[in-house]
Amino acid sequence: xxxxxxxxxxxxxxxxxxxxxxxxxxxxxxxxxxxxxxxxxxxxxxxxxxxxxxxxxxxxxxxxxxxxxxxxxxxxxxxxxxxxxxxxxxxxxxxxxxxxxxxxxxxxxxxxxxxxxxxxxxxxxxxxxxxxxxxxxxxxxxxxxxxxxxxxxxxxxxxxxxxxxxxxxxxxxxxxxxxxxxxxxxxxxxxxxxxxxxxxxxxxxxxxxxxxxxxxxxxxxxxxxxxxxxxxxxxxxxxxxxxxxxxxxxxxxxxxxxxxxxxxxxxxxxxxxxxxxxxxxxxxxxxxxxxxxxxxxxxxxxxxxxxxxxxxxxxxxxxxxxxxxxxxxxxxxxxxxxxxxxxxxxxxxxxxxxxxxxxxxxxxxxxxxxxxxxxxxxxxxxxxxxxxxxxxxxxxxxxxxxxxxxxxxxxxxxxxxxxxxxxxxxxxxxxxxxxxxxxxxxxx
Length: 444
Description:
Blueprint (H helix, E strand, L loop, with lengths): L4 H4 E2 L4 E2 L2 H4 L1 H12 L4 E5 L8 E7 L2 E7 L5 E5 L14 E3 L2 E3 L6 E3 L4 E3 L3 H5 L15 E5 L2 E5 L7 H5 L3 H8 L9 E3 L4 E5 L4 H9 L8 H6 L11 H5 L2 E7 L4 E7 L14 H18 L5 E7 L4 E4 L5 E7 L5 E10 L4 H14 L7 H13 L11 E2 L11 E3 L2 E3 L2 E4 L8 H15 L3 H4 L1
Antiparallel strand pairs: 1-2, 2-21, 3-12, 4-5, 4-7, 5-6, 8-9, 9-10, 11-12, 13-20, 14-20, 15-16, 15-24, 16-17, 18-19, 19-20, 22-23
């Protein structure tokens, strides 16, 4: 199958076969070539604040446990007993002194060590070396501004090397609204739902699909955004330069907006004086702290392979978990400034509910698109005809500068063109590299 990728993914011509979305063999290969190697998002440290706190997450199809041990150190373990493979943790989250397998009772400390084996002395004698049978831990873990990332591959590059120049755009989500480094937290639980489509549909959509505005026309008319103008801060966006940012050598991308050098402050936030004052002050502080970079703000993006930050209100991070070639489980986190007033957090919580997920007004449109596109691509005849990704071929630049502000990445200015498929082509270029590479040495 790998030998035939040349005919399935031709990024230079902008042609992608439907086969990579519906083929069982390709899907199984993705688990080995991509999800067993890449850095993947696990959760946020604010979800496990105390020793003994745990959160069950996912890395591809693998269930994992994000856990803080009794010394306060954070770990990520495979959620599988070393005896017969039973999940040692079947709750979504909680606090525990030990993790006990409900099948045969093998018990693990919160640092992963095997500490209890029923009838161990009689059943095993001196044969069982418990030090060799602790929970399987990820090869590398990184706590980046409160977000926890991990990889199974010991040969993977360091997290910040994996992120590369995309760090500037990821920080738009993770830094405080007033420009301070870090300072955000996850609010509420994790929103989870299933979509009957391949995981790459939402991953590529969030990488930079501006073209589907017709899908959201009705919700844009409702004005559910924080300023009461469209879904989001539409006035700010419409007055800014529209940039598609891609790192094709890394697979990461984001829709970005660059306000004018002399742009006024953002409009007040609906009829909420405390909220309006909070964001007004934050915008002023942001200008002071960030220099010319205060003008940059982000929209949706995708950090390869399956993590999508949305860096402006709503501030969310979605993970598109593969659940077979024809199903995706979506997990979405919502972020707020940790020290924001309660009124601000509550205002944003209600906005996030209205905006995102299967009960929100926006994401329902997307799910319908991905559902029917996937279903319509599974047939014998449909699979003979590729998708078209030619929009904006050859229009990106590596040197973007505006009033002393320089931006990393391959950038396409789509202010007048309104859309490009530059970011999607970068995503599939990296996808193909992962699928063909024998090791991280080939991916460097």
